[in-house]
Amino acid sequence: MADVSPIDIQKALGGVDYPADKEALVSNAESSGASDEVLEALRGIPDKTYDGPTGVSAAIFD
Fold first, then answer.
1. Is the pTM of this model over 0.70?
2. What is the pLDDT of residues 9-62, one digit of tens each?
3. Cα(32)–Cα(2) distance, rounded to whole angstroms?
4. Nearest CA to 38 among 48, 27, 52?
């Protein structure tokens, strides 16, 4: 996932109320005008509830 950085992900997720599920994260990123690369990364994470931005980043980059 070299086309997207953790900073890009966190910018796209600004304003998310955690805990949040995958659908809410993708929806928020779409609403914030996230890039296609960010949206693709978020769509690729496991379908579960995330407690915070650290968990989302771990799902994408680890």
1. yes
2. 999 999 999 999 999 999 999 999 999 999 999 999 999 999 999 999 999 998
3. 21
4. 27
Cβ atoms of 6 and 54 within 8 Å: the answer is: no
Helices marked H in 1-62 = 6-12, 22-31, 36-43, 53-61
* Cβ proximity of 9 and 26 under 8 Å: no
User: Both tokens of residue 7?
Assistant: 């900073």
Q: What is the dihedral of CA 38, 58, 60, 21, to 10 degrees?
A: -70
Backbone angles phi, psi at 52, to 5 degrees: -175, 175
- 6 preceded by cis ω (within 30°)? no
Give the tokens for residue 8: 């890009």
